[in-house]
Design goal:
The protein is largely without helices or strands. The protein has a domain of 51 residues. It has a two-stranded antiparallel ribbon. The radius of gyration is 13 Å and the shape is globular.
Length: 87
């Protein structure tokens, strides 16, 4: 089963955000609506084709959404052992 959770956060992210080359723990902002060719630069999507397709659809140039970030994490719930968060 694949589940997508959408939420609204009111904390500003400072989009677009950039990370220094030395920061290996995170990545800078990629506007996939303007640069869909850069989706392969998002490591959280590399081994999860369902999430990759969801991100592609969410960032469609004709769609109402744009993703601002993605984080993969393990959730201690047996029913959903691997989760990813889109913001």
């Amino acid at each position: 089963m694949f589940e997508v959770l959408l939420s609204v956060e009111h904390k500003p992210l400072g989009i677009p955000y950039n990370r220094s080359e030395s920061d290996k723990g995170s990545h800078g902002f990629i506007d996939l609506r303007k640069r869909p060719d850069q989706i392969s630069l998002i490591p959280e999507l590399a081994e999860w084709p369902e999430l990759r397709e969801t991100v592609i659809e969410l960032n469609s140039i004709t769609g109402p959404f744009k993703t601002l970030g993605c984080a993969e994490f393990f959730y201690p719930n047996e029913e959903f052992p691997k989760q990813s968060r889109l913001i």
